[in-house]
TrEMBL record:
Pfam families for this protein: VWA_3 (PF13768)
Family annotation (PROSITE patterns): VWFA
Protein name: VWFA domain-containing protein
Origin species: Rehmannia glutinosa (Chinese foxglove)
Domain VWFA, chain residue ranges per copy: 306-483
């Protein structure tokens, strides 16, 4: 899908050469990447929020202000070409609360590449940071405005076209996680705009603005470390920082917005935050949120690692998915210490073990397993997940003084997923020693991510998604780092029974005690101070404690409602509970978080009309009064479902590679008509008349005779039809 998107943008940039910008040499058209940049791995995938004109008819491509009257273009673009729209202004507002960032990006784009008398669809692409989740989109065009809203299934689908020359104002809102390592937080927002979205006109003002607010919680001190953009500090309070960047620029930002900061503490710290319920919340009880960070401790000891890598080598993993998995696996093995133990299990319809037992991660063994991986990781066969999981769990049954980990990597769905969950529950609850943790990575959209998430929840681990093939290495590396950096296990909160969820009635205790076990098997205890924090939106970050207390190795500081919805969706899939599905849909609508049980719809609203009346007074002076009519949504359009879905069993059986979508196969007549009607040269991967002539010149004599006879017969039939069947 990424390749198809890049191809569509490349076609669009070729089409944009038709846009005429006048004779002024100082006004340059958008510059596509050079051949050297393309050879160096340049990608047309968006590295910042972008708008594209969706072009199916290339004849409409022209400057809406200065028509060039170019020759008419025949044919169509199938699939449609995407022309990046020029951007006239951009503003970024970021609010960081503990380990979550809420991002609002406002921008203005112009449909600079479509005739003023014609219209086209426009597509918004939003690359988001770590674990990003779209919260809402607002669009304003002349006479109309649009906004997204989540509703329970199903409404009419459709899109609206935008006239050429129109200025489009867009506001995008999403949330994403901050990366945390060694006491340092990193915010990374895609904010790198290609040169070809810079307006060609000389006198257009280009203003770039970034506003950043950081809130690390009460009683903390925040210190800025690095930033990619020239921010000016405008607020400094206990636990808070505020920055602003506002400037006229010649060209838009060419790098992502990266900001790092520390929360000063050399030891483990945390707290409890209290909030009143949200305005429209049906549950009127107050809310609380617990957070716990390890702090910056150079000498902190992590648990000894015992890990079994369980890797899918079915036929669908052939090519780049399996090669990137092998590279990531080799990198993970290289990070193990000689005292750590490991094993590798490859599976398709059968299983292949590197060793019958765990092996020490010495240099000699690592070299052997690398050779074994290169020889045995050959894509082919089906998918059987239960057998290798059973082998991995049994292999870790005698672990002690360590956190045993199973790291499962797959791109497919299987029929017995609920049975696998039941089996893992039975195996893990019967363990006498430390219970193995199960970490899962799903590649693409054909695997059932909610099955993998449920599996990770049962195994007290974590689930991650490699939504595209290019992110496999990064995701495996991050998942392994998460699994191998545990410093505190068996976390438990000593609170009252009726406070075991993030809601409470009455008076909350002044402190909360957290207990756990450190890597040296000693007991750990800390008292968390309870504070009111109305400025931090706990309602967007609330989770049910039943999913974290006593079954997570690291109590994540600030888990957004998206995470809770994903966990509940996994539970609803596993239990097939209809009431739970309804609850998820209500939560999704309330928090504006997408889910599998809601659709995102587009509400179209006509801009308020202004009626002007003139009242005459005795003084003969006109008193002008304006009356605004109430604006109401006129149309509701359902957008594409943005959920992950529950896997595709048929695609897994057919070994369809991840990233492959439904391919439309046109019939021969359609291909011939398109080829014969496209006389504009090589455009959007279609043939021209010259291509047909060249193809015919390569036909052998026998085939030429048959084609001639066929054409003659068709011509006779045509004459017969025109004459009404009468004798000529």
């Amino acid at each position: 899908m990424a390749e198809a998107f890049e191809a569509a943008v490349e076609d669009g940039l070729h089409l944009s050469k038709r846009v005429y910008f006048g004779k002024d040499r100082a006004v340059a058209p958008p510059k596509p990447p050079t051949a050297m940049e393309r050879a160096a791995g340049y990608s047309y995938l968006p590295k910042s929020p972008m708008l594209y004109a969706v072009i199916t008819n290339p004849a409409i491509v022209d400057n809406p202000d200065m028509p060039s009257y170019q020759p008419h273009v025949h044919g169509s673009c199938d699939p449609p070409a995407l022309i990046p729209l020029q951007m006239n202004g951009v503003s970024l507002e970021v609010d960081c609360f503990l380990d979550t960032a809420f991002v609002t990006l406002s921008g203005t784009w112009r449909v600079h590449c479509v005739m003023g008398s014609r219209s086209c669809d426009c597509r918004i692409a939003v690359p988001m940071g770590e674990q990003g989740s779209i919260l809402g989109v607002e669009v304003e065009v002349p006479r109309k405005s649009y906004c997204t809203q989540l509703v329970a299934m199903d409404n009419e689908k459709g899109t609206e076209k935008i006239d050429g020359g129109t200025n489009i104002s867009v506001k995008l809102r999403w949330s994403q996680k901050l990366l945390y390592h060694d006491g340092e937080f990193t915010l990374n927002i895609p904010f790198s705009f290609p040169e070809y979205v810079t307006p060609a006109a000389k006198k257009i003002s280009k203003r770039e603005k970034i506003q950043l607010n950081v809130s690390a919680g009460p009683g903390t001190e925040v210190m800025c470390k690095t930033t990619t953009h020239p921010l000016k500090e405008r607020l400094r309070q206990a636990g808070k920082l505020g920055f602003l960047y506002d400037s006229e620029v010649l060209s838009w930002s060419s790098s992502d917005f990266v900001f790092t900061y520390t929360v000063s503490s050399s030891h483990t710290f945390g707290g409890v935050l209290l909030n009143p319920p949200l305005v429209h919340d049906v549950d009127r009880r107050d809310m609380f949120c617990c957070y716990l960070f390890p702090g910056k401790q150079q000498s902190v000891k992590v648990f000894r690692r015992e890990v079994v890598f369980v890797v899918d080598i079915s036929g669908s993993m052939k090519g780049k998915p399996l090669e990137d998995t092998k590279n990531a696996l080799s990198a993970a093995l290289a990070k193990l210490d000689p005292k750590d133990l490991f094993n590798v299990i490859a599976f398709n319809g059968e299983t292949y073990l590197f060793s019958s037992s765990l092996e020490p991660a010495t240099a000699e063994v690592i070299e052997k397993v690398t050779q074994w991986i290169n020889m045995n990781f050959v894509a082919g066969g089906g998918t059987n997940i239960l057998l290798p999981l059973n082998q991995a769990i049994k292999m870790l049954s005698d672990s002690c003084n360590s956190i045993p980990v199973v790291l499962l990597i797959t791109d497919g769905a299987v029929e017995d997923e609920r049975h696998i969950c039941d089996t893992m529950k039975s195996l893990l609850t019967s363990h006498k020693n430390v219970c193995p943790r199960i970490y899962t990575l799903g590649i693409g959209t054909f695997c059932n991510h909610y099955f993998l998430r449920m599996l990770a929840n049962i195994g007290r681990g974590h689930h991650d998604v490699a939504s595209d093939v290019d992110s496999i290495e990064v995701r495996i590396g991050g998942l392994f780092a998460r699994a191998s950096s545990i410093f505190l296990a068996n976390i438990a909160l000593r609170i009252l029974i009726n406070l075991m969820i993030l809601r409470y009635n009455g008076t909350f205790p002044e402190s909360l005690k957290v207990n756990g076990v450190l890597a040296d098997m000693s007991n750990f205890s800390i008292d968390l101070k309870v504070e009111e924090a109305n400025e931090i939106p706990i309602g967007k970050c609330a989770i049910d404690l039943r999913y974290t207390v006593c079954n997570k190795d690291v109590l994540t500081a600030f888990i957004v409602a998206k995470h809770q919805i994903e966990l509940l969706t996994a539970e609803a899939w596993y239990s097939e509970n209809e009431e739970l599905k309804e609850k998820i849909a209500k939560m999704s609508v309330q928090h504006a978080i997408v889910s599998e049980y809601t659709n995102m719809v587009l509400l179209e609203t006509h801009v308020q009309q202004v009626r002007v009346t003139f009242n005459l007074r005795v003084s003969s002076k006109a008193d002008k009064k304006s009356k605004r009519e109430d604006s109401k949504p006129q149309k509701i359009l359902t957008l594409h479902n943005v959920g992950l879905g529950f896997g595709n069993l048929s695609a897994t059986v057919e070994n369809t590679p991840p990233g492959s979508g439904d391919v439309k196969h046109p019939d021969a007549a359609e291909v011939f008509v398109k080829a014969a009607s496209d006389c504009c040269g090589r455009l959007c991967n279609h043939c021209c008349c010259m291509c047909c002539i060249q193809a015919c010149s390569r036909v052998n004599d026998q085939c030429a005779i048959v084609l001639t006879q066929l054409c003659g017969a068709l011509a006779c039939l045509g004459c017969y039809a025109c004459c009404g069947g009468q004798d000529g």
